[in-house]
């Protein structure tokens, strides 16, 4: 992986320039069937967060939605269940950041995310520790009773 390319993507993410980042990934692929999606999973922060993790930190729906639309449906499970240095999935990070829109998108994509444990053995029920009752409520409305 080209270091300068990762720096450029990190710069776009840090500036929350999601549309340009997605366009860069699309343009970099030679054809639409061979998107350079693996760049999204490459760790780009000191905590080994990838672009998918950082998208939920924006506290907006669109960055994660754009990424999920960019990724082939067959690959979405591996993207939503990717982990950072703490073993946190994208769902853990969405709960910690209280990004309710991201939680809704993730639950629609993969309800199994609520069962995955991080390095501390916490499932996404760790959201209770962050007193995020709205996220708990959303998961219950989605018939996710893993808490």
UniProtKB/TrEMBL annotation:
<dbReference type="InterPro" id="IPR036770">
    <property type="entry name" value="Ankyrin_rpt-contain_sf"/>
</dbReference>
<dbReference type="Pfam" id="PF12796">
    <property type="entry name" value="Ank_2"/>
</dbReference>
<protein>
    <submittedName>
        <fullName>Uncharacterized protein</fullName>
    </submittedName>
</protein>
<dbReference type="InterPro" id="IPR002110">
    <property type="entry name" value="Ankyrin_rpt"/>
</dbReference>
């Amino acid at each position: 992986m080209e270091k300068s390319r990762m720096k450029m993507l990190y710069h776009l993410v840090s500036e929350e320039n999601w549309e340009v980042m997605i366009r860069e990934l699309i343009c970099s692929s030679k054809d639409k069937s061979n998107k350079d999606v693996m760049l999204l999973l490459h760790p780009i922060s000191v905590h080994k967060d990838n672009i998918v993790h950082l998208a939920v930190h924006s506290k907006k729906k669109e960055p994660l939605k754009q990424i999920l639309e960019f990724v082939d449906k067959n690959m979405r499970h591996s993207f939503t269940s990717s982990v950072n240095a703490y073993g946190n999935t994208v769902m853990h990070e969405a709960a910690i950041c209280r990004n309710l829109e991201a939680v809704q998108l993730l639950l629609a994509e993969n309800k199994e995310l609520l069962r995955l444990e991080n390095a501390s053995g916490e499932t996404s029920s760790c959201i209770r520790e962050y007193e995020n009752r709205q996220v708990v409520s959303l998961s219950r409305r989605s018939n996710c009773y893993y808490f």
